[in-house]
Amino acid sequence: MATMTKMTTSEQLRTALESTDRKALLIFKHSTRCPISSGAYEQVTSYLNNQPNEQVDYALIDVIEHRPVSNEAAEALGVKHESPQVILVRQGEQVWHTSHSQITAETLRGKLNGL
User: Fold this and answer.
1) Contact (Cβ atoms closer than 8 angstroms) between residue 28 and residue 104
2) 84 preceded by a cis bond (ω within 30 of 0)
3) What is the pTM of this model?
4) How many CB atoms lie within 10 A of CB 67?
5) Do residues 5 and 60 touch, judged by C-beta distance below 8 A?
6) 80 in helix, strand or coil?
7) What span, in angstroms and rounded, lies between the C-alpha atoms of 44 and 71?
8) Tens-digit pLDDT profile for residues 68-107
9) For residues 48 and 41, is the Cβ–Cβ distance under 8 A?
């Protein structure tokens, strides 16, 4: 079972983005105040609990508690902020992203298990 690392600082974000030269990173931007985001969180957790791609690192950014980190991720990756949102990063660049009800365990499996 893979786990999501909580990303709470700009330094953590920079280090994680730098490591994508070696291993892909999926960032999940989550709002604890949004029911749609709660549903997406359940879908991401379901994916992580059922044979996730272990060759991918997984990170969680709480967009309420850590808004500066969320904004920095959006700016660094050139992706308009949304929440909930997943962003797949390889070699320091976003290669795929989706948001809201498009975040499902099935979608994640299809996108990530082929890497």
Assistant:
1) no
2) yes
3) 0.96
4) 12
5) yes
6) coil
7) 21
8) 999 999 999 999 999 999 999 999 999 999 999 999 999 9
9) no
Rounded-to-integer distance, Cα 113 and Cα 115, Å: 6
- Structural tokens at position 40: 């997406």
> DSSP letter string over 13-57?
HHHHHHGGGTSEEEEEEE-TT-HHHHHHHHHHHHHHHSS--TTEE
For 48-68, how does the pLDDT look when each residue is reduced to its tens digit (9 = 90+)? 999 999 999 999 999 999 999
Token match 């959006």: residue? 74
Q: How many CB atoms lie within 10 A of CB 108?
A: 24
Structure token pair of residue 78: 């050139």
Token pair for 47: 């994916």
